[in-house]
Write the structure tokens for this entry.
Amino acid sequence: MGSKGREIIGMDVDELLGLLNRAYSDEWLAYYQYWLGAKLVKGPMKDAVGAELLQHATEELAHADLVAMRIIQLGGMPVTKPEEWYKHTNCGYDAPDDPYVKVLLEQNIKGEQCAIGVYKRLLDITKDKDPVTYNMVLTILEQEIEHEEDLQSLLEDYELLVTAIKG
Ligand code: FE
Ligand code: FE
Ligand code: MG
């Protein structure tokens, strides 16, 4: 990256790059978990849940794009091999082997809660140190918080529906 752009970063850039590559790996795994879940989802409210999962997939891919661009700008290299996502990930991957709505919602809520923790830590680490990364992380964190809320409110609707059906 430009020398002045690097000079204003008040922290170890290699350490930051390591953390960004972990988040980058999380984003790809989250993308795939949502994307496949959206196709497989079964059960009550599957259309509404599938639409939300697909929207989140698109947004996770956009996060991967933002993080990759910042890694490159910082002079780093985004993880080049998909098998390395597993080595770097913070939040892991929950396969949608059981695609029942409730199971998928719970898996993805867990993933979002992990992502919120990851980006909150990155926000704290970059605060007053790297305003450009801080700003990007804040944008992503806002969206992860929205994702958690979207899924929890769908799960609430699902529980109400199931209770109503049982009478
Ligand atoms: Fe994300
Ligand atoms: Fe998310
Ligand atoms: Mg949403």
